[in-house]
Design goal:
By secondary structure, this protein is an alpha/beta fold. The chain has ten helices and 17 strands. It folds into two domains: 213 residues, TIM Barrel, CATH 3.20.20; 129 residues, Lyase, Ornithine Decarboxylase, Chain A, domain 1. The protein is globular and about 65 Å long. Bound molecules: pyridoxal-5'-phosphate.
């Protein structure tokens, strides 16, 4: 999926493969956020919010590294949460609007959510009906929305396609009838993933086509995530035009976006170290101090091959390296890669673009040491935000 070249310069103190004995200022393994690159991404959303009638939220499911929230909060209006815990994190660390959407709510979570959310979206009419009496008794209830299925998604991988046949996510037009349930003020449509502005345009066309008769009644329309406005080549001007045109047709509807990945796209890396090198008849296995299944699960789930700084596609006759995780899962490897110099034990391997859907999804499977988390500041200094210990591993299990 991620084919664009990394745009981050080599951070000071981090060595590329081929320089194994230099002093390492960043301990391995470590997720490293690059502050300057995050600011560049935020500038894109600043421009979008300035030029189009839209508010942008951070989807915590994609990125919830709260040490960076003060910076992100300068630009984004609030957060979107998909569970009680994400909602609690949003209130504690982010502030601003809190939009909550969960595929299914638990009774016991609803009191807190109703007391704190500015917007709440239900995935089905039955969940809306279940909690409607509680909302009615709530002193200052959030604005209520329903998740719709716009009958279109450009996503081809079923694991990430919310509009696949018989989907459990979102309400199809035939299940909504002709009248919006009383009290419903908004719609949420999430059908994109790493998508362009033309997919956004098609989404809006579909919403007008399938749900157009509800639009006069709506106060807000949340267009979910998947708007990869920070990818090189994304036509931001076209997205602004599309949003403006929709607004001109429906000026009473507030537009909201809640991207996750796009906020931190290509703003940091996962630093790892070669622990062992195991040759076989065709490839050379590299054992790393990180694990794809535990720390970069999307690489195996999507699947996609992450960019490694300084590596390239193997050419005829070159030594072929396969990057192996240090878990015991047989399939915990990815390849193939080639390097201009042979790898040695102790070399650093830098996986690019490892901020979104990594820390939020990582596990302590196999007891593999969990990568630390830190930031490379604009002045070139490194600040450690979190290191993990055996006690963290044990605390998850009892
Ligand atoms: C409802 C909803 N909103 C927002 C997002 C964020 O999407 P992305 O990180 O692709 O921008 C997701 C991702 O799954 C989602 O399900």
């Amino acid at each position: 999926m991620k084919t664009s070249p990394p745009h981050s310069p080599l951070p000071p103190g981090v060595e590329t493969p081929g320089y194994p004995h230099s002093p390492f200022t960043i301990p391995s393994p470590c997720f490293v956020l690059e502050e300057a690159l995050l600011e560049e991404n935020l500038a894109v959303f600043e421009r979008v919010q300035h030029s189009a009638p839209v508010r942008v939220l951070l989807a915590l499911k994609g990125f919830s590294l709260f040490h960076s929230f003060p910076l992100i909060r300068k630009t984004l209006r609030g957060a979107s949460a998909s569970s009680l815990w994400e909602a609690q994190l949003a209130v504690e660390k982010f502030g601003g609007e809190l939009h909550v959407y969960s595929p299914a709510y638990r009774d016991e979570d609803m009191g807190w959510i109703l007391a704190n959310a500015s917007h709440i979206t239900f995935n089905s009419v039955s969940q809306w009906e279940r909690f409607r009496p509680l909302i009615g008794r709530s002193p200052s209830p959030p604005s209520v929305g329903l998740r719709i299925n716009p009958q279109y998604s450009p996503v081809e991988t079923a694991l990430y396609n919310p509009c696949q046949p018989s989907t459990r996510l979102g309400i199809s037009p035939e299940y909504l009838g002709n009248l919006l349930p009383e009290g419903v003020e908004g719609f949420l449509s999430h059908n994109l993933c790493e998508s362009d502005s033309y997919a956004l345009e098609k989404t809006l066309i579909n919403i007008e086509h399938f749900f157009g008769h509800f639009l006069p009644q709506l106060k807000w329309l949340n267009l979910g995530g998947g708007h990869l406005m920070t990818r090189q080549g994304y036509d931001v001007e076209h997205a602004i035009k599309v949003l403006k045109e929709f607004h001109n047709r429906h000026p009473h509807i507030e537009l909201i976006l809640e991207p996750g990945a796009a906020i931190v796209w290509e703003t940091g890396f996962l630093l790892s170290t070669v622990l062992d090198i195991i040759p076989t008849s065709d490839v050379t296995n590299v054992m790393l101090d990180v694990s794809f299944t535990a720390h970069m699960p999307d690489c195996l789930e999507m699947p996609y091959k992450p960019v490694i700084r300084g590596a390239h596609e193997p050419q005829q006759g070159e030594k072929v390296y396969r990057m192996g995780g240090s878990s015991c899962l047989a399939g915990d490897f990815l390849g193939d890669y080639a390097f201009s110099e042979d790898l040695s034990v102790g070399d650093r391997i830098i996986f690019e673009d490892m901020m979104h859907y990594t820390m939020v999804k990582s596990s302590m499977f196999n007891g593999v040491v969990h990568p630390s988390i830190g930031v490379l500041k604009k002045d070139g200094t490194f600040e450690m935000w979190r290191q993990f210990s055996y006690e963290d591993y044990r605390a998850r299990l009892g």
